[in-house]
């Protein structure tokens, strides 16, 4: 059987970078995806395959999944880590900013999942890891839009877990607290 393959978004720093390195250490062929590929040199030097991907850009997600399946024939793990927090009073945050946060934190993760699931279903195995936040379980003043994205990703992950299980696909949610990263 060929080596298992993992795709990690938001791999240019923090949780994504650490996850990519750990998966490689565990023997996976790892693709580290980020908008800023110039920040992936450290991972590339360690043998992780850099992949230009913006989770708000359909073409970059589609071409990334096509490249991975063409090169390895499979995707065993998808780690939806790309995301960001933007804070401010609900009434003060411009709706364009709120929408963008949902595009990145929710719709980007779920669209990429939609692109990967047919491959996992054909394999009858796979794991989708959605990195949410403890902010998907609690709420604070000035964090409404961020918390909204994380609550949404939590609920969608719970539904996806039920939908994907019959096909041998696991859905995992990671809920970290504050991380010292940009």
What does this 3D model show about the protein?
- The model has no long low-confidence stretch (mean pLDDT 94).
- The chain has a 6-stranded parallel sheet with strand order 3-2-1-4-5-6, sandwiched between helices.
- The chain has one domain (27-85, 100-174): Rossmann fold (3-Layer(aba) Sandwich).
- It is α/β, with parallel strands linked by helices and 182 residues long.
- The protein has helices at residues 14-25, 41-45, 58-72, 95-123, 144-164; strands at residues 5-9, 29-34, 49-52, 77-80, 126-131, 169-174.
- α5 (144-164) links the parallel β5 (126-131) and β6 (169-174).
Major β-sheet profile: 6 strands, parallel
Order of helices and strands: EHEHEHEHEHE
Count of discrete domains? 1
Poorly predicted runs of 5 or more residues: none
Largest beta sheet: strand ordering: 3-2-1-4-5-6
Helix content: 40-55%
Strand content: 15-25%
Structural class: alpha/beta
Q: What is the averaged pLDDT score?
A: 94
Approximate shape:
globular
What is the architecture at the second tier of CATH? 3-Layer(aba) Sandwich
- The number of helical elements comes to 5
Instruction: Say how many strands there are.
Output: 6
Keywords:
182 residues, Rossmann fold, six-stranded parallel beta sheet, 5 helices, 6 strands
Summarize the structure.
With 182 residues, this protein is α/β, with parallel strands linked by helices. 45% of the residues lie in helices and 17% in strands. The chain has a six-stranded parallel β-sheet, with helices on both faces.
Give the topology, please.
Elements: E1 5-9, H1 14-25, E2 29-34, H2 41-45, E3 49-52, H3 58-72, E4 77-80, H4 95-123, E5 126-131, H5 144-164, E6 169-174
Parallel strand pairs: 1-2, 1-4, 2-3, 4-5, 5-6
Helix pairs in contact: 3-4, 4-5
